[in-house]
Amino acid sequence: MPVTSQVSGIITNVLAEETQFVNKGELVMTLDANEAAATLGQARGNLGETVRRIAALYVHRRQFAEKLAARQARLDVIRHDMARYRYVSPHGAVPKQVVQNAEDHMRALEADVRETQAELEALDVQIGRTTVTEHPAVQLAKYQFVEAQLRYGQQQIHSPVAGYVAKRKGQVGDRVAPGVTLMTIVPLDHLWVEANLRETELAHVRPGQPALVSVDMYGKRYRYHGTVEGLVPGSGSVFATLPPDNATGNFIHIVQRVPVRIALPKEELMENPIRPGLSTVTQIDISEPGQSVWTSRTNTSTAEYHTDFFEEELQEADAIARETVNENLPLEPSEPHNLQPLVQLERGHDLDRRDGRADGSGTIAPGDRSPEPLREQHDFTPQSHVPPRSPDLGLPSSPLSPSTAGPGSGLLGTEAGRIPPPAPSGNMERSRDRLRR
Question: What DSSP designation does 362 have?
């Protein structure tokens, strides 16, 4: 079985030599993997960027869905106002200008709703009925990464089966191309004999008949007890590189030979090992009936007829691709953060807890937290930056806010938006006492 390279590259290591035994999947040669590693890094980055880009589409879709709901709600409000305006407008309760402005506002909101709906439909076309991991763009980038991972892994050449190394051709520094045979693996525990019998001797040869095989390596000292497995469907001349053409007129009758396959027991091969290509003398006992000449006892269930090493490479590359996809998926909003914020305390404060007291160092470690809330609350509301005595605004107050400005706030003109300073806590308590009385 030849060991070939599936990619091009320069041999950097030769780890198996002729006559050595190698196991299935054992590393026998390595190629320079710098270029393959760079290609793999590009594919990994492309996969991560594609996952994040497609995930952003789903986030944008939720964003536009909320935006559509908000605009639809504002449109519903103006529609309800229009219904009331039209009901009371004939009685002169609402000026015509207010009604006209409300109609214009409603048409503008309807256009905004249609625009948001179109944007939402455009996102639906890009997303389709898929998830982030099943999106076609993500799948394309994923299998590009799998291909790059396979090319990177194929820089290491492994033995597909177990056997002995023969005919090693690759040398360190050689540039190899895909399909070039680097060495050959020979499993010596599964050998058979091709007995080239004359065509005049095949009349009574049948699969299943016993055979005695003598190898010139051992001579007459030992004979292998083989079994006829089948007859090759053709003579040797038919499968020759230049088969003879008997229609040319110069035909000379030559007795043809047909290969007959004879299996050798594995136990005898282990006790008396031999090598492929040796000469043999075969005797077949045709007195045994055997099986039909149309049958064959050969099978492909042994280890050298199948290897799952390349399937393992694909499974490993696919697992790495899935891991890369999961690493670039966004966190769910409900997922807790990994970092737990520390509770900052003012220096000198000792807060009582069920499991002890703070050490006054200013920071409580996450393991020292207690479910009981802190007794002292700090107000983090930003203070106004108005100077204490402003010549244009008078007394200091909080910044203007929508809730304190405009009609209905009780303040008009330059006083609009100002909030009077809160009354002292003692006066508030006395006021509450009067109310209770």
Answer: S
Domain holding 372, by residue range, is 338-378
Do 135 and 218 fall within a single domain?
no
Question: Dihedrals φ, ψ of 62, to 5°?
Answer: -65, -35
Q: Cα separation of 133 and 51, whole Å?
A: 8
SS3 category, 412: coil
In the prediction, which pLDDT does 124 show? 86
Name the 3-class secondary structure at 104: helix
pTM score: 0.60
Cα angle, residue 389 at apex, residues 383 and 390 outer, rounded to 5°: 85
- What residues have CB less than 8 Å from 255, skipping those under 6 apart? 198, 199, 200
How many domains does one find in the chain? Answer: 5
d(Cα 234, Cα 243) in Å, to the nearest integer?
12
**Tens digits of per-residue pLDDT, 73-93?**
988 998 888 888 888 878 777
Buried b (16+ CB within 10 A) or exposed e, 59-89: ebbeebeebbeebbeebeebeebbeebeeee
